[in-house]
Q: What sequence folds into this?
């Protein structure tokens, strides 16, 4: 998995075992670091890879906010009040997340063809960009555009022709299918994840709807820009495709396991 924070010192465990932080939530684990050397209020950060980083003191936490490795919706644990909060709700961080005064556009999807304002640190929140250098990411932005979508916006619709993939920078989306007039949620997507990648290769119909659960910020790579990426910057396309392939392989393995489990359950129930 991609570590969103490069400071490996903050991931040293106290022992060789991992301790579940949320016992009722499968797959979430925490790696503790000794508090030795900390003098002020300590914080822990829930990374997009499901690992808890820290404890760190406020100056380091602020530096991560400025690098956009910690966003307004990132969960942060404060030892002062022994509770988890979203970063935007922590008093010491309020100044970094104050909304900018601007006229609110009425459209549901706001397309911004320029992503030059995004820092490499914010792009690295997307797992498949984890191994790219800052210089590579600065070049990669020429092949992407930003889309800001309002809550409940349908980004892609099942059956429609696909011509782009999307990467989630901020917010939450759900992948659904409407069966018999009822919604069946297949998966929920958060920062660092992506969808629609198959359309880059076959331009085929979308297999499901994707709807924004919250206001979200997405990166869009169109099929045309993907073709440009391959021809004009193969040194960028190769690590991008390799990282995407690893993620797709993990998804296929997980789907195979669920399929085996469902067959075993059905056979056991039929006995």
A:
């Amino acid at each position: 998995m991609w570590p969103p924070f490069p400071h490996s010192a903050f991931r040293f465990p106290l022992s060789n075992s991992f301790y579940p932080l949320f016992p009722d939530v499968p797959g979430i684990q925490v790696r503790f670091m000794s508090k030795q050397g900390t003098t002020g209020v300590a914080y822990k950060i829930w990374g997009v890879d499901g690992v808890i980083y820290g404890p760190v003191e406020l100056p380091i936490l602020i530096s991560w906010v400025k690098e956009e490795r910690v966003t307004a919706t990132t969960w942060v644990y404060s030892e002062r009040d022994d509770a988890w909060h979203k970063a935007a709700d922590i008093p010491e961080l309020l100044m970094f997340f104050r909304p900018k005064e601007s006229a609110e556009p009425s459209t549901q999807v706001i397309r911004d063809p320029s992503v030059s304002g995004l820092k490499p640190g914010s792009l690295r929140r997307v797992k498949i960009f984890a191994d790219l250098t800052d210089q590579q990411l600065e070049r990669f932005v020429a092949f992407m555009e930003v889309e800001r979508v309002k809550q409940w916006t349908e980004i892609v619709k099942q059956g429609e022709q696909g011509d782009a993939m999307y990467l989630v920078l901020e917010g939450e989306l759900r992948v659904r299918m409407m069966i018999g007039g009822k919604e069946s949620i297949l998966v929920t997507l958060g920062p660092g994840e992506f969808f629609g990648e198959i359309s880059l290769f076959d331009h085929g119909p979308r297999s499901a709807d994707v709807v924004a659960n919250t206001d979200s910020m997405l990166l869009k790579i169109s099929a045309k820009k993907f073709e440009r990426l391959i021809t004009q910057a193969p040194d960028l396309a190769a690590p991008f495709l390799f990282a995407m392939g690893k993620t797709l392989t993990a998804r296929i393995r997980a789907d195979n396991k669920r399929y085996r489990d469902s067959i075993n359950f059905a056979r056991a129930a039929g006995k």
